């Protein structure tokens, strides 16, 4: 490894013998890495193992646990709230991911230029990402309020609705309203990722395609998108992972309603643990989520891998 | 990115400069048209993105509940917010404690860990890196439920320190990755000179390398700040005593209302109070943030 050059450059009695040097390096490295190792082991590996163990037990919030495997997993198949949340979460993930991909790419292409004032627009689009997801959800909750927020009045003014606008009172409207909020909150964030990818494409490539007389659309399709693939993949994985685990948008904005029609998988798990006080069942759902998520991410990376490695 | 250098049809220099000249000439004709289109679109989008924020700020100081019915603007919403629950200052303090601990903890662990990953060979090195990246793959709720149980065992439930410790762990994948890349980007000669002068590894890190990785530290610190200040699920699960609530939790319980009435005016005031530190930090550090982010992802 390259790090041996440091040791080799060092002279004096301390550097006698390569084995001793390697040992010293290992000790220093371990010491520097120790805090990180402690955090990963105590706060991540141990809880993960405990989650697996809890899922095999009847584990009430208060009281002593008792081994009952595989009851918690069997119970999942009868948990109507969780089962319907699976389909809802998948639908939400698919729709939101497509929206994120299209809008963030469009925004990135828009602000890619070097016109005067471009920095202002980039900041403006990115600013909602600095607002917390909980605050964003509360902000839109007020925006969607017919008496208090301006959106209802605006829609009436445009003649799009009559009477009270329906933002959160039917399940379709609640879904749409949440998607709008999430798009507002995340579009700029994904735009910056796309922009980073776009800027890594050398100008020469575009020049070449222009020389060949390619139109803007042809350039986008056959030059930009293929070269942007790693970035698109990153956005895809981030969006799919984040959306499958969506909690705040629905927990705060729609509160899972109306009549549990917008309950996501994580909300279902949260209720199992902290409304029904059944930590064992919640852990079982958590384990299912974990396996599903790892599987989906591996599948995405596999399906979209570079098929012709250069 | 390495793939870009293998793109076929990369032109030699002369046609390129000619292409540039062509482009400049063509631009002269169509520039004003495309510019008008660009600025119109960008301005419309700016209204869409900034509109909700501007409205929230305006709604917090206007309307009958803000002014007491006198018209114009008023601060009544803020007065009611200050008196809500355990008191606004309590919630701001709690959030500040969690955020400060998270930022300091994340930087401490990531800088040392990133340095170790970039510069040393030690047993378990790859395991540590994979373990940290695995944190990204595991749903937060999956570990929050057992963590809640563990914290009960050691009597650390309902504590702001516990929330911060867990948030540091959630920040580790990004922090370690960024810091490792930052340290790898520094030429070794820089610390070799210090080591030759008899500096210890820690001394070289403290005196010389930290200055070189400051942009990455700003990025990691800012992400930790935004994540901790706005975190919702972790404090929601861990904190049971209303006096310990952080701002997002307090705001959501404010929205849940007392006796069926929701004070949307005070809620807007709360959103403004919560958002302003984040927006300020974001705008002030944007240059660092975008640069650090770009460096990290291109190198990754």
Question: Could you characterize what this model shows?
Answer:
The complex is a heterodimer of chains A (310) and B (300). By secondary structure, chain A is mostly helical. Chain A has 2 domains: 4-54, no CATH class; 80-303, MetI-like fold (Orthogonal Bundle). Helices cover 69% and strands 1% of the residues of chain A. Chain A has 14 helices and 2 strands. Chain A has helices at residues 4-9, 18-54, 71-76, 80-110, 118-126, 133-143, 151-157, 171-199, 203-211, 216-227, 229-244, 248-254, 265-274, 279-303; strands spanning 57-58, 66-67. Chain A has a two-stranded antiparallel sheet with strand order 1-2. In chain A, helix 11 (229-244) runs antiparallel to helix 14 (279-303). The two termini of chain A are 25 Å apart. Residues 1-15 of chain A have low confidence and may be disordered. By secondary structure, chain B is mainly α. Chain B has a single domain, classed as MetI-like fold (Orthogonal Bundle), CATH 1.10.3720. Chain B is 78% helix and 0% strand. Chain B has helices at 13-61, 64-67, 76-83, 88-119, 125-137, 140-153, 160-184, 189-196, 201-212, 214-230, 233-238, 247-256, 264-284, 286-299. Chain B is globular, with a radius of gyration of 25 Å. Mean pLDDT of chain B is 82; it is low at 1-17 and 296-300. Chains A and B meet through helix 1, helix 2, helix 5, helix 6 and helix 8 of A and helix 1, helix 4, helix 5, helix 6 and helix 7 of B.
Structural class of chain B: mainly alpha
Using the 3D structure, state the CATH architecture of the largest domain in chain A.
Answer: Orthogonal Bundle
CATH class of chain B: Mainly Alpha
Shape estimate of chain B = globular
Proportion of residues in extended strands of chain B: under 5%
Structure class of chain A: mainly alpha
Distance between the termini of chain A: 25 Å
Distance between the termini of chain B: 9 Å
CATH architecture of chain B: Orthogonal Bundle
Which geometry of chain A do the CA atoms define?
globular
Largest interface: A-B, 107 and 103 residues
The ordered H/E elements of chain A are HHEEHHHHHHHHHHHH
How many DSSP-defined strands of chain A?
2
């Amino acid at each position: 490894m390259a790090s041996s050059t440091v040791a080799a450059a060092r002279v004096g009695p301390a550097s006698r013998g390569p084995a001793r040097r390697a040992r010293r390096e290992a000790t220093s490295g371990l010491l520097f890495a120790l805090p990180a190792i402690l955090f990963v082991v105590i706060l991540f590996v141990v809880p993960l193992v405990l989650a697996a163990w809890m899922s095999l037990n009847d584990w009430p919030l208060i009281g002593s646990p008792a081994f009952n495997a595989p009851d918690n997993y069997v119970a999942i198949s009868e948990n109507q709230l969780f089962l319907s949340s699976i389909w809802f979460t998948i639908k939400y993930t698919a729709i939101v991911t497509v929206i994120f991909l299209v809008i963030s790419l469009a925004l990135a292409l828009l602000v890619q230029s070097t016109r005067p004032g471009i920095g202002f627009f980039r900041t403006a689009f990115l600013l909602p990402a600095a607002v917390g997801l909980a605050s964003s959800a509360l902000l839109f909750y007020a925006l969607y309020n017919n008496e208090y927020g301006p959106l209802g009045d605006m829609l009436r003014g445009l003649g799009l609705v009559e009477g009270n606008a329906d933002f959160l009172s039917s399940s379709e409207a609640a879904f749409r309203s949440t998607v709008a909020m999430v798009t507002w909150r995340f579009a700029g964030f994904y735009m910056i990722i796309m922009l980073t990818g776009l800027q890594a494409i050398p100008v020469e490539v575009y020049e070449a395609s222009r020389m060949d007389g390619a139109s803007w659309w042809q350039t986008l399709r056959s030059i930009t998108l293929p070269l942007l693939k790693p970035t698109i993949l990153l956005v895809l994985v981030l969006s799919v992972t984040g959306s499958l685990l969506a909690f705040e948008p629905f927990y705060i904005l729609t509160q899972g309603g109306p009549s549990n029609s917008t309950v996501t998988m994580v909300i279902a798990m949260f209720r199992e643990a902290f409304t029904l006080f059944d930590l064992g069942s919640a852990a079982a759902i958590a384990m299912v989520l974990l396996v599903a998520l790892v599987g989906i991410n591996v599948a995405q990376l596999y399906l979209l891998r570079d098929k012709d490695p250069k | 990115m390495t793939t870009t250098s293998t793109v076929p049809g990369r032109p030699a220099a002369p046609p390129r400069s000619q292409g540039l000249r062509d482009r400049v000439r063509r631009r002269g004709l169509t520039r004003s048209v495309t510019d008008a289109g660009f600025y119109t679109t960008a301005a419309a989008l700016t209204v869409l993105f900034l509109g909700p924020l501007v409205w929230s700020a305006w709604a917090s100081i206007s309307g009958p509940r803000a002014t007491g019915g006198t018209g114009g603007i008023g601060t009544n919403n803020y007065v009611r917010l200050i008196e809500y629950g355990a008191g606004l200052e309590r919630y701001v303090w709690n959030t500040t404690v969690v955020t400060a601990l998270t930022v300091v903890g994340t930087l401490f662990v990531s800088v040392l860990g990133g340095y170790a990953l970039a510069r040393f060979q030690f047993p378990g090195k790859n395991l540590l890196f994979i373990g940290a990246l695995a944190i990204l793959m595991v749903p937060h709720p999956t570990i929050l439920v057992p963590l809640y149980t563990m914290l009960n065992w050691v009597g650390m439930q309902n504590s702001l320190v516990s929330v911060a410790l867990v948030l540091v762990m959630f920040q580790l994948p990004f922090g370690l990755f960024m810091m490792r890349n930052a340290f790898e980007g520094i030429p070794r000669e820089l610390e070799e000179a210090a080591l030759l002068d008899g500096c210890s590894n820690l001394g070289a890190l403290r005196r010389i390398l930290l200055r070189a990785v400051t942009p990455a530290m700003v990025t990691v610190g800012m992400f930790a700040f935004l994540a901790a200040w706005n975190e919702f699920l972790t404090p929601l699960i861990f904190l049971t005593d209303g006096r310990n609530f952080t701002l997002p939790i307090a705001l959501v319980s404010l929205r849940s209302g007392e006796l069926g009435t929701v004070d949307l005016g005070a809620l807007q005031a709360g959103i403004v109070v919560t958002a302003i530190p984040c927006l300020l930090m974001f705008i002030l550090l944007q240059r660092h943030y975008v640069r650090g982010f770009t460096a990290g992802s291109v190198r990754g």
